[in-house]
Amino acid sequence: DRYGRKVMLVRASFGMAICMSLTGMVETVWQLVLLRLLIGFAGGYSSGSTILVAMQTPKERSGWALGVLSAGITAGSLVGPLLGGVLPPVIGIRATFLLSGGVIFLAFLATTFLIKESPRPRPAEAAPAAKPKSGWSQIPDKRPVAAMLTTGMLLAFATMSIEPIITVYVQQLIEDQSRVTLVAGVVTSAAALGTILSASWLGKLADRIGHWNVVVGALVVSALLLIPQAFVTNSWQLIGLRFLMGLALGGLLPCITSVIRHNTPDGVGGNVLGLAIAAQYVGQVAGPLAGGFVGGHFGMPSVFLGTSVLMALGAVYNWIVQSRRTRHMALEAGKP
């Protein structure tokens, strides 16, 4: 918000390109640990690109644009690990890191020369004694933004909750134990594939019928699809249900970001969207921890049923917030 969004993308891509290339030249474990730490500090390209697209796209088309971006990020997350497994036996581990650094450097060049950021209005000079307000304090109505922060965390939680149990769960569903790892990978990829296919379409639909409606609908459908996942009898049933769940969840992230964008002043949009991304990281950490605990103590079907209850509660919460906001806006419009 203060220095520009493009410059943060340039910083992230250049820093990751250098660190990733240097990783292919390390000689000790501690050098590797240090560089992985630096990659974490230098990263943030995906989150930065989300903020840039959200703030520069016209509000009436933000759902579609963020859906396309979400599909691209998910596709990269799906293809990246696959290539990471294929390339080392062919060209070597060190060369794989060098190649990855080269690809990120191309992203740096594309960001530098192809992305154009709209000029931002210069903020008015404040009095020397004035203390800058935080982004959160400048939001007129915090309820919609709080609902989206919670929903983003819930989405990440639901997606990651099965990570600790998926291999063991698949092991119970198939007879050929040599295929467990492969089938578990397909189960995980099925949800990502569904997200890729539906993200842009659901984002475009949300621009037409309302982002809140898509958020509530996606949460309800996801909650319903999680229930049969607890009772599947073969791996193909689980793969199909995870794919359908990915289709339902594909529109959530674009809609979450769009609702935040619509309810946040332009000058602090990046600040608040950064909070949304932080909330999603909380869900990514808490999801596997909770999934592993519940699966170990109450059985693996309980993970799916418990996550279903959370998604249903999230749908009810969003519906209540949306209804109250709609009534409030109607009352405000009716005032003389």
Number of domains: 2
Task: Please report the distance between the alpha carbons of the first and last residues.
Answer: 36 Å
Percentage of β-strand residues: under 5%
Instruction: Report the CATH architecture of the largest domain.
Output: Up-down Bundle
Instruction: Give the mean pLDDT.
Output: 84
In the CATH hierarchy, the third-tier topology of the largest domain is known as: Growth Hormone, Chain: A
Note the total helix count.
13
What name goes with the CATH superfamily of the largest domain? MFS general substrate transporter like domains
Runs in which pLDDT lies below 50 for 5 or more consecutive residues are 124-131
Radius of gyration based on Cα positions? 22 Å
SSE-based structural type: mainly alpha
**Largest sheet at a glance?**
none
Describe this structure in words.
The protein is an all-alpha fold and 336 residues long. It folds into 2 domains: 6-114; 139-334, Growth Hormone, Chain: A. It has 13 helices and no strands. It has helices at 6-23, 29-42, 45-56, 62-91, 93-114, 142-160, 166-173, 180-209, 211-229, 235-249, 252-262, 269-298, 300-334. Residues 124-131 have low confidence and may be disordered.
Task: Tell me the layout of helices and strands.
Blueprint: H1 6-23, H2 29-42, H3 45-56, H4 62-91, H5 93-114, H6 142-160, H7 166-173, H8 180-209, H9 211-229, H10 235-249, H11 252-262, H12 269-298, H13 300-334
Helix pairs in contact: 1-2, 1-3, 1-5, 3-4, 3-12, 4-5, 4-8, 4-11, 6-11, 6-12, 6-13, 7-8, 8-9, 8-10, 8-11, 9-10, 9-11, 9-13, 12-13
